[in-house]
Structure formats: C-alpha cells, structure tokens
Design brief:
Structural Genomics Hypothetical 15.5 Kd Protein In mrcA-pckA Intergenic Region, Chain A, about 325 residues, single chain, alpha+beta, four-stranded antiparallel beta sheet, nine-stranded mixed beta sheet, Alpha-Beta Plaits
C-alpha cells in the first residue's frame, strides 16, 4: 500500500497572520499585503507625510476644524503658493508655506499660559476705542502669538487662558463639553438660602434659561454684602451678573478662580504663568476632540506682565460671564 503523501495546502488569503498584517497596515495608513505581494512601494513615514491641513490650521488658531474645512473648500487656503481645495491634504508645518486669504499661518509650537486678568482690561488682542487689552500684559519677546480662550468682561478679573492652539481653544469654549468654571462673586446684601437655591434651579433672564451647577455662601463683608461661589458649565453672556440681578442681589465684584482642572491660586493680578504638563494633560482629558500636542515650549517657570502679543485674527471666543 502506497503511503499517503500530505501536500502543504496554500495558505488561505484570510488567515490569521494576514488579517493581523492588514490590521497593522490599516493603522499605519497602508496595506502590507499589497506591499508584500504586489510589490507596491511603501508609504512614507508619518513624519514625512505631514499632518492634515485642516488640523494644522485649527491648531494655529485660524478657526475650528470644521470652519477650516470650509475655508479649504472655498479656495481661500494656499500651500506653497498653490490653492488647494482638497480636504485631507497633508502638509509639513515649518516646511510648507501655508496662507489663508493671503496671510501666512505661523506654525509655532503649541503654547498655553494662564493669566490673572485684572479689571479694566478688554479680553481681546486689540480695541478700536484704545482701551487696554489683556495681551498688553504679556512680554514682547519670548512668547509666540497668543489669543484669549473665551472672554472675561471689562470689569471681571481672574483666570484667563491664552493659547495658540486653536483646537484646544474652540473645544474648551464649546457647549458640548460643558467645561466647569468657578466664580467668586461679591453680591449686594445678604441673599437667603432660598434665593441662592433659585440659581441652581434656574432663572429666566431676557427669555433665556440660566442656571448654576452649585452655589454656596463664602462669607459676609463688613458692609453687610456677601461673597458667594458659583459653579457653571454654561458660558452665556454675563451669566453670573444676570442671574444674581434676577434674584435681587446684583454683583459688585466678580473673579473667576477655576476653569476645569486649573486654579488661579495665589497668582497676582496682571501676572501670568505657563501651564504645567499635568495641567495640560488635564485640559486635553476634558476635551478629547482636541488633539493633545506633543509638548509646549512653555512647560515650566513663570512670567510677569509686559507688552502686547497677538493671536490670529480669526480666532473665536465665546463665553463672557
């Protein structure tokens, strides 16, 4: 009887090993099976391929990522002198010349700082009426072009972020994330517990429902006024002032003392400091839609007031408690 000879069967194309290779290739943006079998040239490394154009524009503070996609589709963006309307076009920041409406977009390293805004300053890069702006408190040299994240009113002081990371700025001020903010407000008189409870239940102001997540009494003043702490996850126009006015206790002084994981602490008025790496990680954890940057040139140390800096003219800001 002739012995049975077992021939090795050809490996099926959907074997576990090939599926793993396909999965790895998808993660890397290529197809390893095609490279191995068809002989196609491998795609360049991610660093050489660059980043998506709309992501670079958003991080530079031009606008939100979706708005940047609109700018590209409208033909308002140029890369190395050529108009591009293709979404997903890859560019290399620092090597490719990117322009929006003819203005060069700078690819500075992502930088975010915390400023103790004093009262009497406009939360803007410039003011047509010539009033002082918050960027005048920053040094002329040593920092990239920064813009404010959200707004604090002229007569409100406290914690204000300035950044050149447009994606982070838009995410922090977007209602979908409900980033919490804590304010200390000195209000006229002595509100009753029931009056303060109304702020948590919600009050109508000019037809708009406004509410606080938490309200607590801090202490009384010698003039028989009251300091209260108000926690918000909304970002409506002059929200704290309007709510307190609605319960009959107008705000006499307002300070923002916390935003997400960040605290104003003992930072003096008019002074600024860079965010620590742990603080940056905490911010990005709050807004996962914003891509965390690899690092910042300003991750340690501190700073003091100086002369004007500037951010991108298209940067958006929202909240104004």
């Amino acid at each position: 009887m002739r012995p049975t000879i077992r021939r090795k069967s050809a490996k099926p194309p959907d074997s576990y090993r090939d599926r793993e290779r396909c999965s790895q290739g998808n993660r890397e943006g290529r197809n390893p099976l095609r490279t191995a079998v068809g002989g196609a040239a491998p795609v360049r490394a991610d660093a050489e391929r660059g980043e998506r154009l709309q992501k670079v524009l958003a991080r530079a503070g031009v606008a939100s990522r979706r708005q940047c996609e609109t700018l590209i589709a409208e033909g308002r963006v140029q890369v190395n002198g050529q108009v591009t309307r293709t979404l997903g076009t890859r560019v290399r920041p620092g090597r490719d010349r990117i322009q929006v409406d003819g203005e060069v977009v700078r690819a500075d390293a992502p930088t975010t700082i915390l400023l103790h805004k004093p009262a009497g300053y406009i939360t803007s890069r410039s003011d047509p009426q010539g009033r002082p702006v918050v960027t005048s408190l920053l040094p002329q040299a040593g920092l990239p072009r920064l813009f404010p994240v959200g707004r604090l009113d002229w007569d409100t002081e406290g914690l204000l972020l300035l950044t050149n990371d447009g994606e982070l700025a838009n995410a922090l001020t977007h209602p979908r994330y409900g980033v919490r903010k804590v304010y200390h407000a000195k209000v006229k008189g002595q509100p009753t517990p029931e009056a303060l409870a109304r702020l948590s239940r919600g009050v109508m102001c000019d037809g708009e429902p406004l509410r606080a997540l938490r309200v607590e009494t801090l202490h009384l003043t010698r003039q028989k006024n009251t300091w209260i702490a108000v926690t918000l996850d909304q970002g409506r126009y002059r929200q704290v002032r309007r709510m307190c006015e609605a319960i009959g206790h107008p705000v006499l002084k307002l300070i923002r003392v916390a935003l997400g994981p960040l605290s104003l602490g003992q930072l003096p008025r008019g002074q600024w400091r860079p965010l620590l790496p742990a603080e940056l990680r905490g911010l990005y954890a709050l807004v996962p839609h914003a891509s965390a940057s690899e690092g910042s040139e300003w991750s340690e140390g501190g700073g003091t007031g100086g002369q004007p800096g500037a951010g991108h003219p298209r940067a958006r800001t929202r909240e104004r408690p």
